[in-house]
Specification:
Helix content: 40-55%
Shape: globular
Distance between the termini: 19 Å
Structural class: alpha/beta
Largest sheet: 7 strands, mixed
Order of helices and strands: HEEEEHEHHEHHEEEEEHEEHHHHHHHH
CATH class of the largest domain: Alpha Beta
Number of helices: 15
Number of domains: 2
CATH topology of the largest domain: Metallo-beta-lactamase, Chain A
Length: 414
């Protein structure tokens, strides 16, 4: 099975959307006077007779391009900049758009988010590079060269203002990707600009706790936040990457998203109360057909795990006493390998698992083999094939899963 062709992001919708702004030559008009600049996170310029409103600045690189695109459709000054959350694909390009005459508006928790984000910057960047490095390109021009602080911090009850002929209402949605997440509601037009409340894909399971290492978000707060958007009855939703149209379609899809995440939450809690272990719940909980969402960004099994940890913390009783201490399973790998006659017999048994179509069992064994003999060619070759088989079996459609497997193979090749 061994192949020298590396796994790529080809066919991953999220990757395509993230890269879709690279060749954009003109802003896209999504509604009357509402223009879109695409990027790692889309920015929206809302034109009024008294000046414009920008929703999200994008990354630094996206902002440099977006400012030029927006200049083609409006010469008005930007009066307000609204940040829908505290990730770099929303605030990274603030320095490009900020002037003494405009104001940056964010939720009060934005500053707290930025503080802990800065404290863990190296950790977060390492995790992001592993998954997104090949998709987003050079990280040096994604984040700001200077910090731009918000001028207006809004409270939990929201914030509203009028500009020209438009009404702007900002609503706190703490179930978004950060606790400072908000959506912008244009009541006269019935348009909701929601940033990454739903993640990058609409109708997809949310990723409640990404493997890059973000703070987890709670399932029930996500449900409540989506319910806030549903109650608005929008005719158009502009996300961080997509435009979703039609009031009936939107109501139907939002109801399905709410029902699906609530269902996964409730079944997880039931299983915990019944004394079932975490990995059993990850394997067994599946949404019914009428509540099934796509799993191209988040996955049901991962959200089961996120909900479990949200309520019980890091300790998994099923993993036993050693879970309480800093001695990892790899510490006994050399002893196990010695008992098995070395890494080669373990790699051979792992190869048999691969041949049987059981890549995860193979990977468990290969962790032992490679912890005892990291340079073992047979173990590394078997691991590569196990990873390729795993990608094949899972369908290769989930961005995090595909890019994690690709990174593991890259580590082997390097």
């Amino acid at each position: 099975m061994t192949s020298n062709a590396p796994l790529s992001d080809k066919g991953l919708r999220t990757a395509d959307l993230v890269k879709s702004g690279a060749e954009q030559l003109n802003a896209i008009e999504r509604a009357d006077g509402i223009w879109e600049s695409r990027g790692i996170g889309n920015s929206y310029l809302i034109i009024t007779s008294e000046g414009d409103v920008l929703v999200n600045a994008g990354t630094l690189r996206d902002a440099r391009r977006g400012k030029e695109l927006f200049a083609k459709v409006s010469q008005n000054p930007i009066r307000h900049i609204i940040l829908t959350q505290s990730h770099a694909n929303q605030y990274g390009g603030l320095e490009i758009y900020k002037t003494p005459e405009n104001e940056v508006i964010a939720h009060r928790i934005y500053l707290e988010d930025r503080i802990y984000g800065a404290a863990l910057d190296t950790h977060y960047r390492r995790g992001s590079r592993r998954i997104f490095g090949g998709i987003t390109g050079n990280a040096s021009d994604l984040t700001p060269t200077q910090e731009v602080s918000p001028d207006v911090l809004i409270g939990d009850d929201g914030y509203a203002f009028d500009l020209g002929e438009r009404r702007f209402e900002i609503i706190w949605t703490p179930g978004g990707e950060t606790r400072s997440a908000v959506v912008l509601w244009l009541p006269r037009e019935r348009i909701a600009i929601v940033g990454n409340l739903f993640g990058p894909l609409f109708g997809n399971h949310p990723n409640l706790n990404t493997m890059r290492g973000d703070k987890p978000r709670t399932a029930l707060q996500f449900v409540d936040s989506v319910a806030k958007v549903r109650a608005l009855n929008p005719e158009l939703i502009l996300t961080g990457h997509e435009d979703i149209r039609g009031a009936e379609h939107i109501q139907r899809e939002l109801t399905k998203i709410i029902g699906s995440v609530q269902w996964v939450h409730d079944r997880t809690v039931e299983g915990m109360n019944e004394g079932k272990d975490l990995r059993s719940l990850m394997r067994d909980i599946r949404t019914p057909p009428e509540l099934t969402l796509t799993e191209e960004y988040g996955k049901v099994a991962w959200n089961v795990r996120a909900i479990w940890h949200e309520y019980t913390g890091w300790f998994d009783p099923a993993r036993g006493t050693t879970e309480l201490y800093g001695v990892p399973p790899s510490s006994v790998a050399p002893a196990l390998a010695e008992l098995a006659g070395g890494a080669i017999p373990i790699a051979q048994r792992a190869r048999a698992f691969v041949d049987e179509g059981r890549p995860l069992e193979a990977l468990h064994l290969l962790d032992i083999a490679l912890a005892s003999e990291p340079a073992s060619h047979k173990a590394r070759e078997a691991k590569r094939d196990a990873l390729l088989l795993l990608d094949q079996q899972t369908g290769g459609k989930n961005l995090w899963e595909r890019m994690w497997i690709a990174a593991e193979i890259r580590d082997l090749d390097e």
